[in-house]
Each structure stands twice: as structure tokens, then as C-alpha cells.
Amino acid sequence: MLPDTNLSPDPRAGYTLPVFACASAIAALQKLIAPDQTLDTVEVNLINPERTASIPVEQVAQLPDGSALAITRSDPGDNLDLTRHTPIWAVVSWGSARQPDRIRLEGGEGVGKLENQGDRPAIYAYAQQVMQANLEPLLPPDKSLQVTIILPEGRSLALRTSNAAFGVVDGLSLLGTSGISEPLSAPGQLEAFRQNVREQAQQFDTLVFCVGENGLQRALTLGIAAERRVKTGNWLGPLLIEAALCGVQGILLLGYHGKLIKLAGGIFHTHHYVADGRQEILSAIAAAQGLPTADVQQLLAAATVEAGLTHLRQLDQAQSQDWVQRIYQPLVERIDQRAIAYIQANADRSITVGAAVFDRQREIVAQSDRATTLLQALLVSC
Questions:
Q1: Same domain, yes or no: 147 and 280
Q2: Structural domain containing residue 216
Q3: What is the SS3 assignment for 143?
């Protein structure tokens, strides 16, 4: 069963996608070994943390070709997570004698491919480790195993993420370093984020708001001291206000352009469940800067803002233009203006906010004049 916090008002944790994929594989293997048994749940050793989870099994069956199929359903807890209730299939069959590994793990339909790594399946280290740890003890000594994970809704769900911007195409990733899905995006978790800002504000008058893990890592490579960083999740608006009320004088916003662009449109909770409008914002700023109508329409129709940025770069290369700078510089300046106005309206405080945005390779695309000033001051203080 899932972690239970019924005795507490705190948001409920759940499990990450690799745990449910592993549970499906365990159930399918058990069906392969003992076809007559009935399975309602399986036990999964999470490895990280060191505990066991009981995962409900929705369906399990033998298939005509001798393999077995099992289905579980994702429950990420009280997270705003698009994988909630999505089915996770595992098809398990005995491996061949020539198979180099005892357990061969493959990605089927809906599992993303890493386009920069030869289209290998986006099944990361933790998913592989949890599979090995749980399936190996069940495997008869003279057998090897082939496991194929299928996410029937993965391809369509991936269109609502930024996966493609970071090289994952055609599906979702089996990503994570832990089996527990902490409810970082649940409303009840906001207080923890605020508390973190309060603690940082007691030490520094200038902070770096990092949107996601990519922002945290990029801050380090820029030379920013680790203790200045604040991981914001999607709660940018409330945390900007909290920082202002705590007396912070300057905030550098550092994040992927596909997230921070929302602030240029006045969207201060960046989760896609709340609002999107990324292509619309990029297109509007591009039109205001004089980009030809046909190219504006292409930005608007782009699958992602990363694709829109690629189109602008191609225009620059083909026409010796500077559309990226001409569009993205006003964009980051607009992020500053909207953030400063938001703080003034909601906290009655005047502080400096500067935005720097990067692309899928974590290369800075543009940074505002305020961001440049803040970054210089941050580097001097290190």
C-alpha cells in the first residue's frame, strides 16, 4: 500500500514511475513461474529508501506466445503529476541462451527514447537497479529474462511535458533516484518551500531562484555559491512574495526558457495543470519585434518553445539575422518587469529581479540587464 499520512494534514507521498514498472514486472514474472496463482499485490524492495512497498496489481495474465503480462497503475501521491492513474504494463518472457545479461530490460510503446544516445530507451539508473534487485532473487538459476515496459498513454502524455526539449522523444522517462514521490507540487507543501526561503533570507540579501534540477545544476556551473540557491518548483509567485516580505533585496531567476517564459505572460505558477501559453507568449513577443508573420505562425504552431527557439536560430543562420537576441532579450526584460510588478502588487515591496534563461543544453539564451548585475554581484561575493 502507498505511504499513508491519514493521521496528518500533510500531503500524501506516493511512488515514482519505476516502482510501478518494477511491480508490473514482478507480477508478470510470478505468473510466468506459477501460472495458476492469483495476484492482487506484489512487494517491491525500493532500495532507496530501504523499505518495502505493497503495490496493487490491476491485471495479470499469460499470453499465447508463452509470455506474461501484468498491469499496475501509477499513484504519485498528492502531486500535480500527469502520470496519475496511468497504466504501466510489463511483458515478461524467458530470455535466450545467447542473452548476455540475465535480465534484459527494454522500452516498449510509450517509453521515451534518448535521441542523443542512439535512441536507447529512457530507462535511467534507478529503474534498472530496482528491477535487478527485485527480479534477480525470483529468477530460477537456469533462466534468463526479457522484460519490456509499455506505457500505453506515454506518447500522448509526453506531449504535455518538456521531455523533447531535453532529448527524450516518443514517450515518458522511467526517471528518478528514489522510490518515493514526494508531494513537492501539492498545495500543502508550499509551506516547506516558504520556510526554506525564510531560512535563506536570514543569511543573504540576494538569492538565486532555480526552477528545477536543471536550474540548480546550471547555477553551480555559473560559479554561484550552492548555499545561495533556492529550489522553487512551480511556486514562483508565492516564493517571490515570501522573499520580498523577508527583506531580500535581489533575486536572480534562473531556469529553462520553456518554464520561465510563462512569467512574461503573468503566469506565476508554472505547472502546466495551472496554465500554459508558452508558444503564445513567444509568438506575441516575436510579432512585437517585427518577426515576419509566416515565422510568427510557425512559432505559434511549434510543438514546444524549444522547437520555436530552433526555428529562430535557423533563421539567424540562413539570413544572417539576430532574431534570437531580438526576441529573447525583450522576453527576459519582460519577465523582470512582470515579476517586480507582481511583488509590488502583492507584497508592497520594491526589490530587484533579474531573469536568465537557458536552452536544452543548459546554454544561456538571454539574460536581462538586471540579471547581469545580480550575477556579477553574486560571483564577487563567492
A1: no
A2: 187-381
A3: coil
CA dihedral 116, 120, 121, 127 (to 10 degrees): -100
User: Looking at 181, 196, 230, which one is the last position of a domain?
Assistant: 181
**pTM tops 0.85:** no
DSSP secondary structure string for all residues of 3-69: ---TTSSSPPBEE-HHHHHHHHHHHHHHHHH-TT---SEEEEE-SSSS-EEEEE--EEEE-TTS-EE
In a domain, 7, yes or no: no
- Mean local confidence (pLDDT), 54-77: 96
User: Which tens digit of pLDDT belongs to each residue from 234-292?
Assistant: 889 999 999 999 999 999 999 999 999 999 999 998 876 677 899 999 999 999 999 99
Are residue 246 and residue 355 in the same domain, yes or no? Answer: yes
Residue with cell 496493487: 56
Pairing of the two strands 250-256 and 206-210: parallel
How many Cα neighbours within 13 Å face the side chain of 323? Answer: 26
pLDDT of residue 259: 92
- 175 and 236 assigned to the same domain: no
